[in-house]
Structures are given as structure tokens and as C-alpha cells.
Write a structure and sequence with these properties.
The chain is an alpha/beta fold. The protein folds into three domains: 83 residues, Arc Repressor Mutant, subunit A (Orthogonal Bundle); 97 residues, D-Maltodextrin-Binding Protein, domain 2, CATH 3.40.190; 99 residues, D-Maltodextrin-Binding Protein, domain 2. The strands form five sheets. A five-stranded mixed beta sheet has the order 4-3-5-14-6, with helices on one face. It has a three-stranded antiparallel beta sheet with strand order 12-7-13. Helix 5 links the parallel strand 3 and strand 4. Helix 1 crosses helix 4 and helix 2 crosses helix 3. It is elongated and about 80 Å long.
């Protein structure tokens, strides 16, 4: 087996605490992880790990070998980065995560422009509404709504993320159109699952209104909320970027457009100690130009 790859597998197994966790991180099977470690043990003529059905631990030699492997892999990674930094053209792979609605509606269409500018960069895009840990989960960038209090990350403020309240004409013809935000408490709302049960706070000048909506239906997808609203299932609160086309076409009616739901911003996050390679710089420049 490839010695370099086996060393990577061994380090991941120790750092993650199990072969299955290392396999998930590396995208290989647990059996393959075992084969890599077995190959190292044959090469070294000694055991590296003490393994039972419940836990694993390093042997004395394994602990020393682990530190040496980490040092070797770190040196190789630094050399690779330095070699890439000398190149003027962005190349390699970027792993990026973004919220599902923003990613599908705004980011993905814009990536055509980035691909034109940086055709040698491969993109691995993960759309999820979970706040992933960039460092632990191996992401180069994350788009987030708002700025998380994480001192390890740099946050570049991008476009506003404005919310809107909408319902379909067919729903309003049956339930009636609310005249004031307080009337929302008498209406059915199809809620985004993470926000279900939250109080809606609306403001207009000096007036502030808090409403606890009735949420008989919850769903964890912004696009599913859009189709739910279009089908007349109830009122939805979603980003304007998702609802704008339906509002323009008259398929949805925006409620209380002169009231504010509180404005947040999209931010581009990246690890503070990340080395600025050409591909990193190219993606930051693209994001600021496209969404800034």
C-alpha cells in the first residue's frame, strides 16, 4: 500500500478516536482503514494500536510513530501550499458550505461566473442549515446568515438577508387578509422547523409588535415552504430572495411590506489561520464582488 496514504489514515484514526470515524472523514471503508494500519504494522514489525471491541489505544511505539507521522504530513502540506502559492493561477479544490435556501437560490447560479474566472478550481458544495464546524469538518469557506461568535474565523460581511411574510391569494380568499401584524396569530403558518415556536418581532417606526404564530405545519426546507405557500397551506416567513419571483408574478402576496422583520447579513467565513493560496484569494474576491 502507499506509505503516505497509510500514514494519513493512521493519523486520522488516532485523531478521530476510531477506525469508523476516520473512515467517514476520509471517505473510505472501515475495512480499508484497518488494512492501511495493518500494512504499517507489518512494515514496522510491531503493533501501533491496541484494539478491543470497545476502544483503541496507542502502543508506546505507536504514540511515537503518530507524532512523527504528523510532523511528516504537516511538512508535506506546508510544502504543497508554498508551491501552490508561487503559482499565479488558482487551482485545486475548495470545500464550501452554505445555508440551503441561499445556496440553491443565490450561490449556485453565481458559480458560473466563478468557474469562468477560475476554471482549474474544483468545488465541493455542501448545502445545509446546520452550522458546521469549518475546522473539524474540513471546510475552506462557509456562508452564514449573521456572524457567529467564533474567534477562529474571519467573517466578511456580504449582502443583506431580508425576510418577507407571504401567502397565496387562494389562502387569503378563504382566511382573509390580515390588516395588522397582530392578526397573524389567527392565521396558519407553515414554519421553518428550526424557527418553529419562535416569536415574530415586527417593527414600523417606533411601533414594535410581537406575535406568536400558529404553526400546524413545520418543514425543514425553504423551497418546500415556498411550494407550501403556493399551494395555499398557510402564511410563510422566508428570505425575499426565495419569494421575490412568486411575489412579482402575483402567485404570492407580500403581507406588511412596510414593516421590518429585522435585517441580517450573509457573511463569508473562513479559518483565521488559513494560508491564502491563489484559490482562496480567488473565491474571496468572487464572493465580495458577487454578493458584497
Amino acid at each position: 500500500m502507499d506509505l503516505f496514504r497509510s500514514m494519513q489514515v493512521f493519523v486520522a484514526t488516532v485523531e478521530k478516536g476510531s477506525m469508523s470515524a476516520a473512515a467517514a472523514q476520509l471517505g473510505i471503508s472501515s475495512a480499508m482503514v484497518g488494512q492501511h494500519i495493518a500494512a504499517l504494522e507489518v512494515r514496522m514489525k510491531t503493533r501501533l494500536l491496541n484494539r478491543t471491541t470497545r476502544r483503541q489505544s496507542l502502543t508506546d511505539f505507536g504514540a511515537n510513530y503518530f507524532e512523527q507521522c504528523k510532523d511528516i504530513l504537516d511538512r508535506i502540506a506546508i510544502t504543497d501550499l508554498e508551491a501552490e502559492a508561487q503559482q499565479s493561477e488558482a487551482l485545486g479544490k475548495l470545500r464550501v458550505t452554505a445555508p440551503s435556501t441561499f445556496g440553491a437560490t443565490v450561490l449556485m447560479p453565481a458559480l458560473a461566473r466563478y468557474r469562468e474566472e477560475s476554471p482549474l478550481v474544483d468545488l465541493d458544495i455542501v448545502l445545509t442549515d446546520r452550522n458546521v464546524d469549518l475546522v473539524d469538518e474540513g471546510f475552506d469557506f462557509a456562508f452564514r446568515i449573521g456572524v457567529p461568535p467564533d474567534s477562529r474565523l474571519i467573517a466578511r460581511k456580504l449582502m443583506p438577508y431580508t425576510m418577507a411574510i407571504c401567502a397565496a391569494p387562494c389562502y387569503l380568499s378563504v382566511k382573509g387578509q390580515p390588516a395588522h401584524p397582530v392578526d397573524l396569530s389567527a392565521h396558519d403558518m407553515v414554519s421553518f422547523t428550526p424557527a418553529a415556536g419562535s416569536v415574530l418581532t415586527l417593527s414600523k417606526g417606533e411601533e414594535l409588535v410581537k406575535v406568536m404564530p400558529n404553526c400546524p405545519i413545520k418543514v425543514n426546507s425553504g423551497h418546500a415552504l415556498l411550494t407550501s405557500a403556493l399551494a395555499g397551506l398557510g402564511v410563510v416567513v422566508q428570505p425575499k430572495i426565495l419569494l421575490a419571483a412568486a411575489i412579482k408574478e402575483g402567485a404570492l402576496v407580500e403581507l406588511f411590506p412596510d414593516w421590518q422583520l429585522g435585517e441580517r447579513h450573509v457573511s463569508l467565513l473562513y479559518y483565521r489561520d488559513q494560508r491564502m493560496t491563489p484559490r482562496m484569494r480567488s473565491f474571496i474576491s468572487f464572493s465580495l464582488a458577487a454578493f458584497g
